[in-house]
Amino acid sequence: MPQKIREIKFKDKDFPAVLREIHNPPVQIFVWSKSSALPSADHFLSIVGTRRCSAYGEEILRKIVAGLSPHGFGTVSGMAIGIDTVAADASLINKIPTIAVLGSGLGRKAFYPKINWRLAEKIVEEGGAVISEYEPDFMATQYSFPQRNRIISGLSPATLVVEAPEKSGALITAKFALEQNRDVLAVPGSAFGANSLGTNRLIKQGAGLVTEADDVLKAYGLAVEPPLGGSTAKLKLDLSPEEKQIFNILTEPMDMDSLIRKSKMPAHTAMGIIGLMEIRGIIKKLGNEYIKQ
Known about the structure:
This protein is α/β, with parallel strands linked by helices. It contains 12 helices and 12 strands.
């Protein structure tokens, strides 16, 4: 697909108004899209996280994005592998407008990461946009990624951090969000998981705790309809095949090792699913054993 790249300078009327407000705004942005402007949505949510996301991180993010789809949301992410890729893919699946912000130029030779070139094409084909403040032939550097993070946070009223180790670029984006007077939201995780150290610390410091789409809606001041038949009943209707497998195995109190062994899933996959089910209130832990809610 031939690229249609347009330069929008700070003084141009099409320059995003939300980026005019931030400290050190880009002097121009290059936009690869079908139209001459960025996609529109009632609300945008920036999503960031580790490149080495877990099955748990991917699953909960996909459920959050799916839950936001009926409420006029668009997403912003950074096009890196891991959480960024999941955010963009989930947005496309749910027909949500999405914007990817690169730390490289938009040209084919400079584009980074190259593995996501086809994903970028799909974003553009579906009416989204891939943008950068750098010239199309600019090759990414170790400094260009932290710098572009201020644009990711600047495009939305809130930034959601899904998984982040203690030293993570996602935490840089969260810092930019706070400096820009934006909200920071975070998905909690295991106290023992390296990918949760950053997000759990953000929550301790006051970030909004997010385990489902309703938490994002509340952060945006949007009304949330009470679920029919109780929240747990609603969640049980929305179980993935793997979650149903765990749920059906749990006919009696069972420890983590027994659940993993009986599920016959890879240990890291089963642990992620079990952790997500606990957060969603479908199962709970009593001592060392899990039971159905």
